[in-house]
Write a structure and sequence with these properties.
This protein is α+β, with helices and mostly antiparallel strands and about 325 residues long. Strands 1, 2, 7, 8, 9, 10, 11, 14, 15, 16 and 17 form an 11-stranded mixed sheet that branches. A 4-stranded antiparallel sheet has the order 3-6-4-5. It has a two-stranded antiparallel sheet with strand order 12-13. The protein is elongated. The protein starts with a strand and ends with a helix.
């Protein structure tokens, strides 16, 4: 027997971290180091002197501390990493932690929890929420929220995250709460035993009622931030079902589709749909344009199915479209 769950309206759980979890390191708490410039460093760049004072930090981080106003020479605040220092001058640096070191800290946030037991939880991720810390997003991620939600997350790889959604993709994700659950869920994903269905709006008139896209996906050789269909990429499989087509007043076509993942490559649906000439609405990275009021890619993880990692009971979860996508969807598929 399969247990099936549907979100609506979603319940919200607020994770509560330790009192000091979100405290920033102030200037008074930061470590200060001081150096009287020796003759051997006369004429050296300030940032090179700082490296000799704090070799455990990268030069880029130390340059950033200069820009943020944490370095003085003879009591004068410095702003240029390239300024030359003189023998006998006093250099003072206030060392604050790197952003990376602050990334894996509990941070309270509302989590839309669809299902939870002692082994796992299923969340309905909103668009705009980053799943895992990365450059430019070192805090405020789902991982931070999971660390605040339950203490055991700190002992697990990636706080129990076993798969990801892009920042601007909404929908369902499963997260392990124990090492045994994380291991079992990871194996199910690797064996392609996890059922994942997405709804999307794309540009153009999708002519075929159903089609299978089998095209390898890898890093775009022309852009580090994009993926692409490339021969050297990893095998990727997406089944696409056309649901409806709609023509706007200007004569442009928009289609609604249901996509089933056979694999889970980075940006897979976005790349595959763009590769057949149907980029997703508002997916500017892959050629989509903002339309129907959408300012983020029109993609939602609507259904997630897997076997419970401990009991092996089949579970299926459904989540309705997020409000922005639902409003656009009704213009294309009013009966859906």
């Amino acid at each position: 027997m399969t247990d099936k769950y549907r979100v609506g309206p979603p319940s919200t759980g607020l994770a509560t971290p330790p009192d000091d979890a979100l405290d920033e390191v102030s200037g008074d708490e930061a470590e200060r180091r001081q150096l009287n410039v020796p003759a051997a460093q006369h004429g050296c760049r300030l940032d090179k002197v700082l490296v000799s004072m704090a070799s455990e930090f990268s030069r880029n981080h130390l340059q950033g501390l200069i820009e943020l106003g944490h370095v003085w020479v003879d009591g004068v605040l410095q702003s240029s990493a390239s300024r030359k220092v003189q023998a006998g001058q006093t250099v003072l640096i206030e060392l604050t932690p790197t952003q990376e070191s602050q990334a894996f800290k509990p941070q309270a946030m509302p989590l839309v929890i669809v299902f939870e037991d002692e082994h796992l939880l299923v969340v309905n991720k909103p668009a705009g929420l980053v799943v895992h810390p990365a450059p430019g997003n070192w805090s405020g991620t789902l991982l931070n929220g999971l660390l605040a939600h339950h203490a055991a997350a700190a002992t697990l790889p990636r706080a129990g995250i076993v798969h990801r959604l892009d920042k601007d993709t909404s929908g369902l994700m499963v997260v392990g709460k124990t090492l045994a659950a994380v291991t079992a869920l990871t194996r199910q994903i690797a064996a392609r035993d996890v059922h994942r269905i997405y709804l999307a709006l794309c540009h153009g008139r999708v002519e075929r009622a159903s089609q299978r896209i089998e095209a390898p996906v890898g890093r775009d050789p022309r852009s580090r931030i994009r993926m692409a269909v490339v021969a050297s990429g990893r095998a990727a499989l997406t089944d696409v079902e056309r649901l409806a087509v709609w023509q706007d007043a200007a004569g442009g076509w928009i289609s609604s589709v249901r996509c089933k993942l056979g694999t889970g490559r980075t940006h897979q649906i976005r790349v595959h749909m763009a590769s057949i000439g149907h980029p997703l609405l508002a997916d500017t990275t892959y050629g989509g344009a903002e339309s129907l009021g959408l300012t983020r890619q029109a993609l939602h993880a609507t259904q997630l199915g897997f076997r419970h990692p401990i009991s092996a009971q089949p579970l299926v979860f459904d989540a309705p479209l997020a409000a922005d996508l639902a409003q656009a969807w009704q213009q294309v598929s009013p009966a859906a």
